[in-house]
Amino acid sequence: MTLLSFQMNDSTVSRLDRLAEKRKLSPAQVAAMAIEEFIEREEWQLAEIEAAVREADQGDFASDEEVAAVLSKYASNPSRK
Q: Would you say residue 24 lies in a domain?
């Protein structure tokens, strides 16, 4: 395990301390959990973006008909009002 040292805003440290106390964990444990969750979310998001870029580069787009079909599900119908 590696020890990290970094500076944090005082108000964030206070919030971290309060949350850790409520969760009955150390502030370091809460911070480590938060960092792990952030990294997982960011890795997932970047992987999705990269996949979408690859699809776009390959010309893998929805057809006009597919777009129209989806939009028709959500477009308001003036005759229904």
A: yes
**Residue 79 domain flag:** no
Whether 27 contacts 17, CB under 8 Å: yes
Nearest in space to 8 (alpha carbons), one of 30, 23, 25, 41: 30
Q: Rounded distance, CA 50 to CA 22, Å?
A: 38
Token pair for 70: 């989806």
21-59: pLDDT as tens digits = 999 999 999 999 999 999 999 999 999 999 999 999 998
Specify the length of the chain in residues: 81
Boundaries of domain holding 42: 11-73
Domain membership of residue 5 (yes or no) is no
Rounded Cα gap, residues 81 and 75, in angstroms: 13
